């Protein structure tokens, strides 16, 4: 039996042609390869796109971290706490959007001495610097809050012309929200009273430049060598301080008229024969002890809060801020930005006298510590935009700033508004 296939059952493959099944397999293989390639390409592009998004996300995260750090650095200060906040350590920050609550044209109660814009000052940047303590946020002065805190109370500022400036500042900060028929001001030689009638409140000033009695209280003796202080006598002034709810004292610049001061015990009738000369810090300690004894003997701390405004610096020596060719504070338009700047116009010996005397008192006294923050503000004094002897400076006087620029008193609005901002935060 032959094993060869018969012609009827055997199929012959035509030459030059592949069987259908092989073609199909090849095509399917190519299709599969193409599909895998396409998927691979898609996933390659997708991974690149994801990588870009991932990088962007990382960048955003890093930026967010930076912003968070910035916010942390700016907002790290705690809310004001009078027991914790070191108000006198900080910096002045320029804030153009911060407008004063009053101007020397809108407030009718300002003296010519401090009305700098009225008196011709053209620059205005000095009104837009904001004090920022390093460790806390100092609340803005709010007139409504101030008047609410003063409702039914009497606030009195006691001291010299710088304290009168702080008084005028406080009055101007609140008077704008009081209707015309609900407020009044009565000025006196020693005692001036602003009344906020609907709040049953008074904001008063009492003139006592040394706190203790002197022969220059009224009328003022211009020649400092002829002034005599009664360092053991305060009652003439102090009899006007009783019955107040808040007393704010200051006394510094009048003591700095010389290296030694004529001091007297007993009556002025003894005249020139009765005085002795003491170094200024010694006489200052005597006078402050007399004041402190009166406070301890006459003030009930449950009824009356007592404050003491530390010394207001003078800026009469431009070499203090590295301008040896300058003319005192004349033409200064920016604060000193150097941290801890301290000039020759603030006597640390006198400051330590206040600290030691107050530290031994029975009645608690709160310091309004304004010396360091005011030290920076060489730009904010009255300078030539002021008056002398009740008259505005003449053009000839303005042309001679060395002899006529006032680098003791402050323009209003200005630095004393910050002093009152601190005072209000403590009330």
TrEMBL record:
Which organism does this sequence originate in? Erythroxylum novogranatense
Location in or out of the cell = Membrane
* Stretches assigned to the Trichome birefringence-like C-terminal domain: 138-425
Q: Which UniProt keywords apply?
A: Membrane, Signal-anchor, Transmembrane, Transmembrane helix
| Membrane topology according to the record | Single-pass membrane protein
GO annotations of cellular component type? Golgi apparatus; membrane
Family designation:
Belongs to the PC-esterase family. TBL subfamily.
Instruction: State what protein this is by name.
Output: Trichome birefringence-like N-terminal domain-containing protein
Q: Which residues form the Trichome birefringence-like N-terminal domain?
A: 83-136
A Gene Ontology molecular function term for this protein is:
O-acetyltransferase activity
Transmembrane spans: 20-38
């Amino acid at each position: 039996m032959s094993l060869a296939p018969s012609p009827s059952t055997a199929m012959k493959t035509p030459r030059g042609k592949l069987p259908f099944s092989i073609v199909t397999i090849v095509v399917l293989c190519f299709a599969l390869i193409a599909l895998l390639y396409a998927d691979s390409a898609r996933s390659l592009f997708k991974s690149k796109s994801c990588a870009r998004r991932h990088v962007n996300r990382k960048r955003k995260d890093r930026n967010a971290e930076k912003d968070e750090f910035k916010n942390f650095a700016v907002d790290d200060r705690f809310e004001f706490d009078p027991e914790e906040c070191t108000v006198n350590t900080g910096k002045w920050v320029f804030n153009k959007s911060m407008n004063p609550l009053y101007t020397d044209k809108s407030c009718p109660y300002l003296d010519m001495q401090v009305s700098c814009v009225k008196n011709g000052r053209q620059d205005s940047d000095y009104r837009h610097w904001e004090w920022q303590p390093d460790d806390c946020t100092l609340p803005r002065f709010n007139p409504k809050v101030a008047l609410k805190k003063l409702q039914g109370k009497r606030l009195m500022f006691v001291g010299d012309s710088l304290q009168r400036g702080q008084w005028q500042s406080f009055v101007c900060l609140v008077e704008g929200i009081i209707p015309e028929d609900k407020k009044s001001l009565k000025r006196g030689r020693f005692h001036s009273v602003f009344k906020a009638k609907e709040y049953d409140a008074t904001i008063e000033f009492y003139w006592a430049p040394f706190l203790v009695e002197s022969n220059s209280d009224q009328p003022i003796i211009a020649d400092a060598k002829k002034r005599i202080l009664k360092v053991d006598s305060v009652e003439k002034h102090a009899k006007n301080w009783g019955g107040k709810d808040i007393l704010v004292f200051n006394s510094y610049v009048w003591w700095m008229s010389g290296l030694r001061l004529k001091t007297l015990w007993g009556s002025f009738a003894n005249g020139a024969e009765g005085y002795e000369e003491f170094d200024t810090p010694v006489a200052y300690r005597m006078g402050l002890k007399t004041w402190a004894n009166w406070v301890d003997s006459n003030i009930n701390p449950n009824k009356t809060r007592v404050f003491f405004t530390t010394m207001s610096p003078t800026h009469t020596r431009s070499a203090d801020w590295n301008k040896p060719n300058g003319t005192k504070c004349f033409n200064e338009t920016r604060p000193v930005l150097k941290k801890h700047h301290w000039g020759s116009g603030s006597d640390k010996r006198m400051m330590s006298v206040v600290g030691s005397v107050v530290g031994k008192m029975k009645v608690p006294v709160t310091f309004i510590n304004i010396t360091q923050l005011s030290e920076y503000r060489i730009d904010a004094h009255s300078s030539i935009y002021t008056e002398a002897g009740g008259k505005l400076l003449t053009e000839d006087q303005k042309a001679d700033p060395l002899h006529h620029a006032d680098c003791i008193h402050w323009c209003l609005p200005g630095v004393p508004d910050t002093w009152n901002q601190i005072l209000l935060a403590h009330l």
